[in-house]
Amino acid sequence: MLPPPAFDQPAYSPQKIAVVVAELAEQGVAPSAALEGTGLDPAQLRTASTRVSYRQFDTAFRNALRLSRDPAIALRAGQRMHITAHGIYGYALMSSPTYADAVDFSARYFRVMGPLTDIEWASADSSVTYTCEPVHWPDPTQPIYRFVVEFALSMHLTVALDMAGDSFAFSRVDLAYAAPAHAEAYTSLFQCPVRFGQPHNGLQYDGAWLARSVTLADPITNATAREMCERMLSEVSDAGGIAANIRRALMAQPGRFPNVEAMAETLAMHPRALRRRLETENTSYRDLLAEVRMRLAIEYLRKTRMTNEDIASRLGYSDAANFRHAFSRWTGKSPSEFRGG
After folding, report:
1. CATH code at 276?
2. Of 61, 104, 173, 249, which one is least surrounded by beta carbons within 10 A?
3. Whole-prediction pTM
4. Nearest to 88 by CA among 257, 224, 216, 199
5. Is residue 6 part of a domain?
6. How far apart are CA 42 and CA 232, in angstroms?
7. How confident is residue 341, by pLDDT bands cut at 50, 70 and 90?
């Protein structure tokens, strides 16, 4: 599991927020209402220099869930995210020699765009399988989880159609949550079997696409775009601050959670200096530790048969009761309720 990108670092294009605002505007929702709490105004969404954070994504998406009359708004918004909305990253995809090269590029550089989900690709049995998990929304029982998965899969289809034309199609879509009331909108958009209640979110398509040449392939443009994305990836990786370094350290060795003094020593800092740095990033060591424990707990409950006692031990709790209390505080559900769906 990759550590999540920084939640509060404004490092990304506002396009995803802009398309949600546009969808809401068609329903008669004022942009000011759609942007409430984000600290953004409509003009900033049209400015190339504007950078936003995952916290602003989160606020705008929760606004959409609250304000929209269309339960499928995330699917609609994803259809607005054409390949040109992805800037230099999109040009790199369009100029790739083959679709296999585009997939390899995406697997390396997708985090430069502030993705809503982490992705993994696999090719087997003449099919390509793409799985995705929300980067900052780990609980599949929550509406915000469904929203970001809908947005991400719809956006992926839009980009694929822009590159390959109408002959491209998914062969299957899997979702890790129960069918929502608007399940028919999935079938209408994706035009393939859609399965809910699966172990993972993802999609599948014909592996024959990988060997095909991209229509707009251009080696010079591709090399230039890749070089720029390499710089952008480095900037994004460095932008997370000390909190991102701590998340990486905690997730690298689950079950071995040092106290703040030991973490400060690992980072060659005085504990007071570490606490002050975290305060400037609007977090604390206690909050980061709880966040990592919650993400790992949800991962274990969803994808393993580990008992509560095993999970409690792995997460550094003295007994299963303390783990159950913590999990209920995080999610509003007991571990058994969560695992039972």
Report:
1. 1.10.10.60
2. 104
3. 0.84
4. 224
5. no
6. 25
7. low
From residue 282, alpha-carbon distances to 170, 201, 241 in Å are: 41, 31, 11
Instruction: Label residues 285-315 b or e (16+ Cβ within 10 Å = b).
Output: beebbebbbbbbbbebbbeeeeebeebbbbb
pLDDT digits (tens, 9 = 90+) for 238-269: 666 788 888 878 887 777 788 999 999 988 88
Same domain for 53 and 161? yes
Confidence of residue 340 (pLDDT cuts 50, 70, 90): confident
Cα(310)–Cα(319) distance, integer angstroms: 9
Residue 108 domain boundaries: 15-237
Asked if residue 5 belongs to a domain, the reply is no
Instruction: Please count the structural domains in the chain.
Output: 2
Question: Using CA atoms, how far apart are residues 115 and 16, in angstroms rounded to an integer?
Answer: 10
Q: Which of 237, 256, 289 is the last residue of a domain?
A: 237
In this structure, are 288 and 196 located in the same domain? no
Q: Based on the domain organization, do 255 and 189 belong to the same domain?
A: no
Given a contact cutoff of 8 angstroms between Cβ atoms, the answer to whether 119 and 130 are in contact is: yes
